[in-house]
Amino acid sequence: MEQSITFVALDTHRDTITGASLPPGSERPTDIRTLVNDVPRLLKWLRRVERKYGEIRVCYEASGAGYVLQRELEAHGIRCEVVAPSLIPKRPGDRKKTDRRDAEHLAIQYRAGGLTMVSVPDREDEAVRALLRCRRAQTKDMLRARHQVLKHLRRNGLVFRGTRNNWTQAHWAWLERVELEHRAEQVVFRMHLEKLRYLMAQRDEVDEEISAVAFSEAYLERADRLMCFKGFSVYGSMGLVSEIGDFRRFPTAQAFMDYVGLVPTEHSSGETVRRGGITKTGNSHCRHILIQASWAIVQSQPRVVNRLRAQWEGRPSWLVALALRAMKRLYGRFRYLTNRGKLRQVAIVAVARELAGFVWAAMQDHEGAQRASRVA
């Protein structure tokens, strides 16, 4: 069937699109052209190729342009796939790179089956993903703003000594009473403080929106499963759900661990086995969520607190058993590794890798999840 298909590769940029069509029976693309980045003009060219050669399939590399082009082509009945850029085969000795050569190489690899495609989220998942990434960016901005406040006060010889931690109610009350000697210094301090309050108010607004989405019909069941695990808040659960979409697209837990980049690198040959740090490939947002959840799991004894007890109420027995097993297993694993001299950062990555397996098991369909929970 594929012998009668014309494979078309697009090298997309903000202003231009370079397309290369590889018809049946041809070893190299026969039609390579650069078009203005305009969907109607691109469709006109693709229809011309389709009339000349028959069925076509289109691909382009994932980029900051998102999935708008893919959705537009699919809406017009043209099959379009998005390629993972980091997994495109490259020849080590090739030192030439142009748009035309990239499109030509992509078309040849597309027909040969040498490309790895990314999973295109639906529009709703993409919108929620943007909301959650916005929240993460706001958290980073808040941390930066807090550092600005504390460092400015420290330069003026002021350090809070009231309680063990900063940003408690007592610390905020102390900040409100601070009066610096010079007016310019006081103005800077108040500006930093107002900026921090503004960012906190923004994050609270985003948190309310995330909670509203989490309890909507589209996400409630999936988010509830993840919140059965210790360490997963509404934010973390929605982050994984929106980033991954359908967990069943990963055939095994190992495949999911590979996707989030929590498996060790390996360079083995013959009898020599060499393993290094984790690959850090795939989705960095998911990896961050899993690592943060792991820290929450190992920082205290595995007890069933009121939040978990309320979350488990009415949930399937296999899911509750899986969450309880994960909590005990991961806490013990962390203690075992640290007692053997492993750095805490190294041990927590190992815990996050196992947590990914438990999460994958929980997010399978009903029968598959029960089978997976027994081997997670």
Q: Write down the domain tally.
A: 3
- Largest sheet properties: 5 strands, mixed
How many helical stretches?
A: 14
* Strand arrangement, major sheet: 3-2-1-4-5
What spatial form do the alpha-carbon principal axes imply? globular
- Nearest-integer average pLDDT: 90
Low-pLDDT windows of residues: none
Question: Helix fraction?
Answer: 55-70%
**What radius of gyration results from the CA coordinates?**
26 Å
Q: Would you mind describing this structure in some detail?
A:
This protein is an alpha/beta fold and 376 residues long. The chain has three domains: 2-112, ATPase, nucleotide binding domain (Nucleotidyltransferase, domain 5, 2-Layer Sandwich); 123-214, no CATH class; 220-373, no CATH class. It is built from 14 helices and seven strands. The protein has helices at 39-53, 68-75, 99-112, 123-155, 169-177, 183-214, 220-227, 234-244, 253-259, 284-298, 306-312, 317-339, 344-362, 366-373, and strands at 6-12, 16-22, 31-36, 56-61, 79-83, 264-266, 275-278. It has a five-stranded mixed β-sheet with strand order 3-2-1-4-5. The chain has a two-stranded antiparallel sheet with strand order 6-7. A hairpin with an 8-residue loop joins strand 2 (16-22) and strand 3 (31-36). The chain is globular and about 80 Å long. The mean pLDDT is 90.
Task: Briefly summarize what is shown.
This protein is α/β, with parallel strands linked by helices and 376 residues long. The protein has 14 helices and 7 strands.
